């Protein structure tokens, strides 16, 4: 188990290796990786962003300890994986009902941010048992509409997780990054904070989920590196050291250093070091009226900056942040319902609503 830093986010050490906080050597490595990507014709890893931005390149460099060749290889592997599995198409045509069913059994954005402006996610493992029907239903929808094949090898349950990771990278992170009045605005938001509640989960349930959790962690490590800032595990049962023995083997030491197991007494004082009580769900010692399974309770700064994104008006299904020429962005509703695709601008940064 990792040791928590002595101070909260005021420290700039958490920003090392990111834009605005690069050493001269890291600046050189970034320039080298840019040139290598240009030479390889590697231009983008996401439909909503026009190019391979520096934030993405730095995530891969940090994951590979600023070894340019290793970072380039991982970028190329991810690009091939995305193309092979048609990730942009998967997200944009994802069945809306299946997407909402998948949300019930995976990590969920609360709609709030921590003290550094990073999105806060909550995952209550016990809900997998309570919503297993949803888990299977969404898998069935995907299997019927887009079965795996040699050219499309992601199995149904991981396709759901892929879509939710796309939601994180293509909506939540750029949305939080667009908010002007946040700490360290010179540094784009590229990581997330997670609360994982494992209370009321038995050893057999952990064992039954072992294979799926391992596959999910491998997917994140390979294709979404350096998107985790820290993860707090709550409600650990007495047998958890056994489970932790499995889990920590799935991650590299850097990732495990970001995981903190909190006792009941440590929960509230620790979590409020990293997020305001108003942004922490009541269940975990905060003041936020939000429970697992509810839509995001979008914070006031985001609602003020992105017109049309109020919590009570959030659209179901896949959403995408699309950058606009000259700056700004739009939230575009994608996905399909009864086989019909949608492409509707539902919110914009500022007060002008342009066509998608």
TrEMBL record:
- Which region ranges are annotated with the description Disordered? 1-24
InterPro entries named among the record's database cross-references:
CRAL-TRIO_dom (IPR001251), CRAL-TRIO_dom_sf (IPR036865), CRAL/TRIO_N_dom (IPR011074), CRAL/TRIO_N_dom_sf (IPR036273), PI/PC_transfer (IPR051026)
CRAL-TRIO domain: residues covered:
109-292
- Bias kind Polar residues: ranges: 1-15
A Pfam entry, by short name: CRAL_TRIO_N
Q: Which PANTHER family match?
A: CRAL-TRIO DOMAIN-CONTAINING PROTEIN YKL091C-RELATED, TRANSPORTER, PUTATIVE (AFU_ORTHOLOGUE AFUA_5G09260)-RELATED
Q: What is this protein called?
A: CRAL-TRIO domain-containing protein
**What lineage, starting at the top, does this entry show?**
Eukaryota, Fungi, Dikarya, Basidiomycota, Agaricomycotina
